[in-house]
Amino acid sequence: MTDKTFLFQINVTRDCNLRCTHCYISTEKKVESKYMSDEQFLIAIEQIVDFMVTDYENRHEYGHAEIHVIGGEPTMLGYKFFERNIPIAREKLSAIPQRVSFSIVSNLITPDSVKIAHLFDIVSTSYEYKTRFVSLLGKPKPVLENKWLENVKLLRKEGIVANVTMAVTKQAVDLGASKILNDFYTKGFKKIHLGFFIPSGDGRVNMDSVFPLFKETTQFMIDAATWYLERRLDDEALYVNPIESMIESIYNDKPMDDIVCPIIPGSLDIDWNGETVTCIEAGGEVDMESLGNIYNIPIKEILLSPQYRREKSRAIIAKPACRGCDELLTCQSGCGVLHKFWDGTGECPGFKGFIKHIRNLVENEGIKPKSLLLELEATGRMGC
Q: Can you state the percent helix, strand and coil of the chain, rounding each to 5?
């Protein structure tokens, strides 16, 4: 069976109790958003099941359904919503023959967030230095950050280790990869994802203060790779992506879902009212152009529609500046949104300098994927 992943994001609301200055969702969209009903949420789950089962029975394109319950802040719907619906959703998802991961993405500061987290397979949270726990005017609110950390520790005490993601902002670049990763590791995070900042929503409004140069992001990732490689074999649970996923990609000579635009392997962003887009960032805008409403058109029909195919083709077709690039297979032109902010000079939106750095580690210094090293260790063949 293929290991290709289809990413579904169910935005049960776009509303949020935070106003992070780097956020890809606009404040206007948050204010206008309402909440999914029980019926709407379960219809979304049923249609995901229908699509995956149909794929398994016919095309065999996907081996994994990655389902994120997200927002905005999903836990604003309250514990009762999830208590009613997650057991039913799990039962429905059990009909999917492919592998399924079912996660919640939360800022973990609402009163119910810890209780809700226990209902999911995977819990992810986010932290961005100076741009996350702030007031409407961008002033730091340490009481919110302290609440987040308190809940992270409480989850760990109760047996749940949350993953953490972070957008690489100017503030992150200024602080430095080593200090940030040390801080995450000290807080007990073992699965860490460093995402490229995308200027959309509030992030676009504030881009002058949060959008780093492409060369700065590349250097941050290179520094993060140095930090990670010094520690990854000493802690089997430690993974920092896209460092590890880039090693895997280059070693196996194939693009990884974690690196390329998610539209290319397959993605669908479902809004609270059933409207859909392919690009995760596009869903954060009030004027998003919907591919169709899942309450009127089944997901499997939306994903076969000319509109969806057109969006996917736009992502797949190499950008003019990328044609002929020797790293195109790895990044597949990167994020299309970022290309709009590139003048064609210096480091590119595919972060070629970072890719080249990892390629040198793999091809010239013998760095291997952690998955392979653990397999060799388990079979006693580390010397091979």
A: 45, 15, 45
Instruction: Specify the pLDDT at position 336.
Output: 85
pLDDT digits (tens, 9 = 90+) for 104-115: 999 999 999 999
Cα 136 vs. chain centroid, distance in angstroms?
25
3-class SS string, 48-97 = HHHHHHHHHHCCCCCCEEEEEEECCCHHHHCHHHHHHHHHHHHHHHCCCC
Mapping DSSP to helix (H, G, I), strand (E, B) and coil, where does residue 113 land? Answer: helix
- Phi-psi category of 195—alpha, beta or left, where left has phi over 0 and alpha has psi -120 to 50? beta
Q: 261: which residues sit within 8 A by CB, 6+ positions away?
A: 279, 315, 332, 333, 334, 335, 336
Query: Residue 360 corresponds to which tokens in the numbers above?
Result: 């040198």
Among the listed residues 137, 139, 134, 82, the one whose alpha carbon sits nearest the alpha carbon of residue 109: 134
Amino acid at 309: R
Sheet with 267-270: list strands edge to edge. 239-241, 191-196, 163-168, 122-126, 99-105, 64-70, 5-11, 267-270, 276-277
- Confirm if 124 and 105 have CB atoms less than 8 A apart: yes
Cβ-in-10-Å burial (0-12, 13-18, 19+) of 365 comes to exposed
Residues in the chain: 384
The yes-or-no verdict on residue 384 having pLDDT over 50 is: no
Q: Check if the beta carbon of residue 112 is closer than 8 Å to that of residue 56.
A: no
Residue 139's φ and ψ, nearest 5 degrees, are -85, 140
What's the CA gap between 306 and 143, in Å, rounded? 48
Q: State which amino acid sits at residue 362.
A: V
Residue pLDDT, tens place only, 288-346? 899 999 999 999 999 999 999 999 898 889 899 999 999 998 999 888 889 999 999 99
Tokens for 195? 């995402």
State the pairing for strand pair 64-70/163-168. Answer: unpaired
Q: Pairing state of beta strands 122-126 and 99-105?
A: parallel
Cα–Cα distance for residue pair 122/109, rounded to 1 Å: 17
